[in-house]
Design a protein that fits this description.
This protein has 123 residues and is α+β, with helices and mostly antiparallel strands. It folds into two domains: 1-31; 35-120, no CATH class. The chain contains five helices and four strands.
């Protein structure tokens, strides 16, 4: 069954196809979907399959115990500029084949230090 279209209908359909592909290119980069930070972090840690490691810190006489799962969950819940910085740093570490757990340990210490500082302020 053939459908005859007049020139206006053909132009309209071609315009819709053109708009569709241009919108597709805006939201993709060379056919690859640009991931949000949450999607990136989920995929990154899923592919790394890191072991659960526990770290102990004593900061200003306060004892802290944090494991890698807590840090990874905190990373997944970051947003904005902080998420972009963590994402960039993880990408650089991964490219250099560096130890991701060392970076997570650094972040765990920062989390513990922030918690200690907030406790000192009565928060």
């Amino acid at each position: 069954m053939k459908i005859k279209l007049d020139i206006r209908e053909e132009t309209y359909i071609l315009a819709l196809i053109y708009i569709y592909f241009n919108l597709y290119n805006i939201f993709t980069f060379q056919g690859v979907f640009i991931m949000t930070n949450t999607q990136y972090f989920n995929r990154f840690f899923e592919e790394k399959d890191l072991p659960i490691v526990a770290w102990d810190f004593e900061i200003n006489g306060i004892y802290h115990a944090i494991n890698s799962d807590v840090v990874i969950e905190a990373i997944k819940n970051t947003c904005g500029d902080e998420a972009l910085k963590v994402r960039t740093h993880l990408r650089k570490l991964d490219f250099a084949n560096a130890d991701i757990l060392k970076y997570l340990q650094f972040l765990a210490y920062a989390m513990a230090a922030t918690n200690t500082e907030l406790r000192g302020q009565g928060i």
